[in-house]
Amino acid sequence: MIYVINQLYEKTLTISSFKSIKGSSDIDLSADAGTTYSLTPTTTVTIIDPFDCYLDALRSCFDFDALRTFCQRDDFSILFDGMHGAGGPFARRVLIEELGLPESSLLRCDPRPDFGGCHPDPNLTYAASLVKKMGLNPDGSADESVDATSLPTLGAANDGDGDRNLIAGAGFFVTPSDSLALICDNWESIPHFSKEGGPRGVARSMPSSAALDVVAEARGIPCFSTPTGWKFFGNLMSSKEMFGKTDYTPFLCGEESFGTGSDHIREKDGLWAVLSWMSILMKANEDTPAGEPLVGVKDIVTKHWAKYGRHFYCRYDYEAVDSDAANQVMELVRNEFVNGDVTSVLDDDSGIKLTSASEFAYTDPVDGSQTSNQGLILNFEYPNGDPSRVVFRLSGTGSAGATIRMYLERFERDESKHGESAPQALKSLAERALSLVKMEEMTGREGPTVIT
Questions:
Q1: What is the rounded distance in angstroms from the CA atom of residue 195 to the CA atom of residue 206?
Q2: Other Cβ atoms within 10 Å of 436 Cβ, number
Q3: 141-194 pLDDT, tens per residue?
Q4: CB neighbours of 216 closer than 8 A, spacing ≥ 6?
Q5: Which residues lie below 8 Å from residue 292, measured CB to CB, with a gap of 6+?
Q6: Quick count: other Cβ atoms within 10 Å of Cβ 63?
Q7: Interatomic CA distance for residues 331 and 35, integer angstroms
Q8: pLDDT digits over 198-212, tens only?
Q9: What is the b/e burial string over 334-371, where b = at least 16 CB atoms within 10 angstroms of the residue's CB?
């Protein structure tokens, strides 16, 4: 996949001109699917129906008949926020027309050129309307003043082009990393995987939490940690088909930036993730009689944590930081910790000990290509021995400034502590890391622009 992408890029360098059919009276782009036009003696264009093509792909992954029956339960409801993006009409076709859910299940599913003035990013900050309607505070914790029994069973959001997703239950936010791990652990609920005996491979971007790794190890599934970028997942999906190597399909993959997907279209797919969660809920409630409370998203996730432990996780984004200052922060981490002696770092009152530091590099197991400088990792240990880490990545070092992303992850075995909110659970780790890298001193920032 990476080889193909590079070859396509090389071809773009030789393009000298292109033609457009804009304003043509000979071609009707609204014609019926199947209509074919001859553009040149050797070139034809056929009108397709993307809804039908996409539905065929989804039907190959899920049991639509069973889902439709489940959706008719009086005690099941969903709220889907299309954020005025391209995914809205597809959500209407699938959820309303195919699965029979009421129109009230949709929020902002009419595409608008300006996304209705909102930022179409499916996270706690920009999907604020959905977050509130699911009984959540802006930080993802439950709003205790809201009666959870009055809330939708499942909440979801798409981004502007429909490929990313947010998942929530009644009064309960699911992090993208947890969502990925739970889909993996519940693969029996999803026909795309169950008919093949489960995923043959799973992968996550390096900054995502290790929740997936724990499940994959327990389930005996090959697991990969890759650089950020879907092309690295693409290589693993194409391992046998293009390179004659190990077959990792059916494949499951995702990123902490709310992207989840599989090999059905070899790209992240927000609606696919939503149908995966609907399938998980359907399976969990196959023995729940009418009149009894449904097994909800919170029940499924907390049971998962009790089995595997919880990976508390969040991301701090420091946006539009002076480029020189941002680079200085990264160089400090690299010089003092990655290339320095972490044993000389003094302990503080938190008891959180810096144990090691590294810079992530990746050798692709399929084509052998190498990718370096993918993030600086500080590994810590809590007084009880539980591991944690903080990852620093830099992007957009242009004239408008840079974004420093700080990814926080803490593993907690103690089930009695799993109910703590992620911001509170990670507060001491964040303070320890920010102090070590001198974030405020170097950038002048007292806090992040966005926390997700």
A1: 29
A2: 21
A3: 999 999 999 999 999 999 999 999 999 999 999 999 999 999 999 999 999 999
A4: 184, 202, 222, 223
A5: none
A6: 17
A7: 57
A8: 999 999 999 999 999
A9: bebbbeeebeebeeeeeebbbeebebbebebebeeeeb
Could you tell me what percentage of the chain is helix, strand and coil, using 3-state DSSP and rounding each to the nearest 5? 35, 25, 40
The answer to whether 211 and 177 are in contact (CB under 8 A) is yes
pLDDT digit string, tens, across residues 24-35 = 777 888 889 999
Instruction: Give CA 343 to chain center in angstroms.
Output: 35
Distance CA 188, CA 193 (A): 7
Q: Point out which residues pair with 356 in neighbouring strands.
A: 379
Q: How many residues does the chain have?
A: 452
Structure tokens given for 221? 């599934």
User: What pairs with residue 41 in β-bridges?
Assistant: none
Q: What are 353-358's contacts with CB under 8 Å, separation 24+?
A: 353/380, 353/381, 354/378, 354/379, 354/380, 354/436, 355/379, 355/380, 355/381, 357/333
Is the model's pLDDT at 57 over the cut of 80? yes
Q: Is 416 helix (H, G, I), strand (E, B) or coil?
A: helix
Contact between 264 and 218 under an 8 Å Cβ cutoff? The reply is no
Q: Which of 254, 269, 236, 237 is nearest to 176 (CA)?
A: 254
